[in-house]
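Section 3.1: Structural characterization of target chains.
Under the original work plan, the team committed to producing a structural model for every single-chain target entering the pipeline before any wet-lab resources were allocated. The record below documents one such target. The sequence was received from the expression subgroup and is listed exactly as submitted; it comprises 348 residues.
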Amino acid sequence: MLSESELTRLLSKFQDLKILVVGDFYLDAYWYIDKTRSTLSLETPWHTNPVSEQFYSPGAAGTVTNNLKGLGVGTVYTLGVIGNDNFGRTLLTCLQDTGCITDKMIEETNWVTPTYLKPIHRGIEGIETEGPRFDIENTVPFNKKVEDNLITTLHNFVPLVDGIIIGDQMPIENLGVITSNVREELCNLGDKYPDKIFFADSRTRIGEYTDVIIKPNRFEAARAVDPNCDLKKVDIESTKQAAISLTENTKRTVYITLGDNGILVYNKEVFTHIAGNESKDKVDPVGAGDSVSAGLVSTLCCLGRDAVIKAAYIGNLVASITVTKIGTTGTASPEELLEKHRSLNGRF
């Protein structure tokens, strides 16, 4: 697949890359609740939830930027929309703290910054249990002026970067950054710049992308082809058929993630299965897909879009590391990738 020297040279090239991440940037808010300090309210029959610590991190498209910077990608631009609120300002600070260039982020008054609030309850012995998540999501579309600004910025940015990652997180059409008009422009740009890496990840609209590389998981791929499909019946054969159908629109490589079974690659009418990397440690799959995206796109930007197998291998490698970092959307460093690569190839 890759020798250690080849991997070392590849990783060293990441520092020269310029990648634009456009889409839905969320804020992940972790509130640690010290239940040992909880008291019964005098006015209500409820015990209080004293927040002893707070931790904030970019989520959704921001998880991709975290991973890109963790891999050592030199320049990461962010293009998205935030509200005129404290969560938006916190999100910007978090992105800047990781080294992202955020001057093209758009602040919209009639918009709320999407936030996932995750309460972490702590007991007497410090054991932590995550409670039900609170979601703050935008419920109104932004105005035409903001959309036009986004599209103009895209046209100006594309010639300046090596790759564009589209993070289409919002499940409801036209309530996120990737509106139908923005998506159409991105697809047009993918057609206009066929040698540039355009890469899309979308929870509910992956089947609507053309002229870009896509990376759904097996369930997203199945639903893109048949919205009424029985997800319990999704297997490798139905996943292959979904890949064939999807590539008719994209005219690009289709990567379909298979959970801990790795990645199915469909390129130029040939299927390749990149096996997953087993872990003896406890794993948390949250954010694994974003880890794959970061490793995959960085590799394609360095080696060209025909390096599909090496790109999938690197994407798998990154995810196999980040899933072992429990309780946070972790990242993987070049040093960790080299160590993991050695362990998989029998060198300890």
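The two ends are 18 Å apart (CA to CA).
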